[in-house]
């Protein structure tokens, strides 16, 4: 599985990073037209609202390249794919050897014996094909589960980061035509995600160490 395809899946489902802003300004008045004073008041209100917004953006390529959990997931998926492929290859080689052995001894077999061996080889071949499909389904499910796990972690952190730092909107950089570099919070997000991931990985070790110390006492 290519990392690029996996990255597309991740950000296909990531809604938090692609928030769109839409303002509706309506004025229902009785009469023929708005007064200049009304228009000025409306414009001032919109300017105030816009000036109060705090917007940031995240570069998804930089994020996935430097997010430790994402990189570990890619490595885990590649390792699982390799393991399953080796399993299938081993069975296929075993079946090929059985077929070659059958061909070598076919002239010494009765018709009944040959038919039984052929039927057995055919069943094994069908089982191998079924196993290959089952492995493919397993990989697809694992990929989907891991994709969701990565997206959920990013979404949860972005939401928490937004609240803690007063952001109203956090966008995905690739969806923006132009933005001031000062709005780039990618490094902060990556550092926060990695710190959270490191804490999760170290938690079991710390718990085990504490348990051992308690048992010694």
Automatic annotation (TrEMBL):
Protein's name in the database: Outer membrane chaperone Skp
Gene3D superfamilies the UniProt entry points to: Skp domain
Residue numbers spanned by region Disordered: 196-217
Residues in the signal sequence: 1-31
Family affiliation: Belongs to the Skp family.
Organism: Mangrovivirga cuniculi
Classification via PANTHER family: CHAPERONE PROTEIN SKP
Coiled coil: 60-134
Entry annotated with the keyword Oxidoreductase: no
One GO CC term, this protein: cytosol
Pfam family, one: OmpH
GO BP term, pick one: protein stabilization
Keyword set, alphabetical order: Coiled coil, Signal
Gene Ontology molecular function: any one: unfolded protein binding
Entry annotated with the keyword Coiled coil: yes
């Amino acid at each position: 599985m290519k990392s690029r395809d996996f990255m597309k899946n991740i950000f296909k489902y990531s809604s938090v990073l692609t928030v769109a802003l839409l303002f509706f300004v309506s004025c229902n008045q009785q009469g023929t037209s708005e007064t200049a004073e009304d228009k000025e008041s409306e414009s001032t209100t919109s300017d105030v609202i816009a000036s109060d917004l705090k917007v940031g953006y995240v570069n998804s390529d930089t994020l996935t390249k430097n997010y430790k959990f994402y990189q570990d997931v890619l490595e885990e998926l590649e390792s699982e794919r390799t393991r399953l492929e080796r399993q299938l290859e081993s069975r296929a080689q075993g079946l090929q050897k059985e077929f070659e052995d059958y061909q070598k001894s076919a002239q010494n077999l009765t018709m009944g014996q040959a038919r039984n061996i052929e039927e057995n080889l055919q069943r094994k071949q069908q089982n191998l094909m079924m196993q290959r499909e089952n492995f493919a389904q397993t990989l697809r499910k694992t990929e989907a589960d891991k994709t969701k796990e990565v997206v959920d972690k990013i979404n949860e952190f972005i939401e928490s980061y937004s609240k803690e730092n007063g952001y109203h909107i956090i966008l995905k950089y690739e969806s923006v035509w132009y933005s001031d570099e000062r709005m780039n919070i990618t490094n902060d997000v990556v550092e926060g995600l990695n710190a959270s991931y490191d804490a999760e990985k170290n938690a079991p070790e710390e718990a085990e160490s504490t348990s051992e110390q308690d048992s010694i006492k």
